[in-house]
Structure formats: C-alpha cells, structure tokens
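dumping this here before i forget
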Amino acid sequence: MSDAGSRPTLEAVAARAGVSRATVSRVVNGGDGVREPLVQRVRRAVEELGYVPNQAARSLVTKRHDAVAVVIAEPETRIFADPFFALQLRGISKELTAHDNQLVLLLTEGRDDHARVARYLAGGHVDGALVFSLHLDDPLPGLIEGAGVPTVFGGRPGWSGGSNSAVYVDCDNRGGAEEAVRHLVALGRTRIAHITGPLDQTSAADRLQGYRDVMGEGDPRLVAAGDFTPAGGERAMGELLDRCPDVDAVFAANDLTALGALRVLGERGRRVPEDVAVIGFDDVLPVAGQSEPALTTVRQDIEEMGRLMARLLLSTLTRGGSASGAPAGVVLPTTLIRRATA
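structure:
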C-alpha cells in the first residue's frame, strides 16, 4: 500500500498531461474555461496515475462539500424498527451516490438534539439538508431556516416555525385513504373503523381526513389513536373491539399498525377478511407481503420519494442554493394494492 507521500499530486498529473497545474485544478474541480482536448488529456492522466482530488482543496474552489445531511426527527428505536425509513434512505442514497455526494445522517433522539443539528448545519459541513418525519410543534424547520442551508422536506408542511414556501415531497395521503375506505364500502362493510397515526404529523392527519371524506363524522368510537407502530395497532384494535364489537372493517394508518391490528383480531377469534376486513398504508413489502393473510394496502413509492427529495435539493444546489424555479411541493400518486385482507 502506498503512503501519503507516494500519492500522485496535481503537479504529477500536469506533467503527465503536458499542461499547467492551474489547468489540472480547473478540470478536476469542475471549473470552466478549459478546451475539450485539454480536458480529455487531464482526465486520461488522472486515470492513469490514480489521482484522487483533495476534498478540502476542492471545496475551496467550488464552494461545495458534496455532502448532504439527512435529518430524521424520530428516535433511533423508531427509525431502525420501521422499514419505511430504510426505503426512503435507500432512495436518497442512490440519488446522492449517482451525483458523487455523501450522505450524512443526523438523528434527533429528543428536543435537546435540535440545537446540535442546527449548529452542525450552520457550520458549513454540508451543502444542504433533507428533513422528514417532522411533527407539528417541531422547532427544527425554523432552526434549519436560520442555519441558512437549502432544504427539502419529506411530507406536507404544517409544522410551526417554518417557511410557507418550503420545498417538499409527499404522497397523496388523503386520496389514498379515500380509495381504501371506498373499497371497504364497496365490499359491503358498514362499521368501518380507522386506526390513526400520530396526529401531530401531516401524513396521519391527511389519512384521517381521507377516511372522514368517505365516512363523514360518523361514530367517533370507530376512530382509535395509533402511533405508526405494531404495538400502537394492537392497543388501538383492542380498544375498538371492546367498544364496538360489531366493527367489520379497519383502515389502518400504515402497514405496521395493520400488522398489530391483525394480531389482535386473530387473538380475539375474528377471521380476516370474513369477519373484519383490514387495509393498511405504505405497501412496505416485508410487512404487507408477509403478513398472514397478505395485507391489502395503499402503495406509496417510498424509495422514489427519497430519490425525488435528493433530486430537488441537488437541482437547487446547481442553481447556487436558490429555490427559485423549484416546485414548492411535489405530491406523488398512490395505488390500492388488493391482497387477501380486504
């Protein structure tokens, strides 16, 4: 293995290519003003010598770090237990990698971490930020805005302290919920319950509104609070069966919630879908495809949402950090995937 002293330098590349050091610097750092034949000569020399640009020096020239922070406003236990986050991170990582950018993951275990994240973003370590899973009273959007870094959010804005012109990517949560509940109605179900997600998140609030668009206010006992976790789904399903034994369908706010509901229905001797039909939301295949019975659910393209968030941010950075010309919000469609539970 070679040591630092034997690594090829700009001068070595310049000598191999027969050009000046300044010309090599402009080519490897993405500068303009170099004729194409010289560009090709420099690139051949870089490849032949195995030259790797010094990132610190490159940043001085380009004013870019080629690094993007991904901020998830959830505790670690939630992030690593929910495959939704893995899919979104995979989409983000693929897009950043394709453009030779690094992903820097920042987690917020609690409110004490918010100031730390804001300081890091303001410290010039990254070019921009991708932020998702925010809650309505979350101070992070305001702190990030104060840090002055270009940002794209995952999820419809609705939180306090942020800009009304926030660039974001979301799915059609309300429309997807409507389609799910209409399907249950078409099956002849009349006592259709909803297990919500945490209603301080816009995705959960929109899915509840989609349910109400079809069912109206109806019987308030048919709505039970969940938290996007299997345990929350179990707890809520138990409450629903206790107070509404005649429930014949459940629309769960996500697949993990539906998984918890299915467990309780089985324990209580309710057949799915004969006695109670169940629909989830997300179409996270490790959950929806392997549940018993296989879960009918609303599919959102989670990985594509991550890629699109990264794409929008990189486009903003290309324009020098200006969001001008970027869409304020991109809402992707959803699709009802029919399997065995409804």
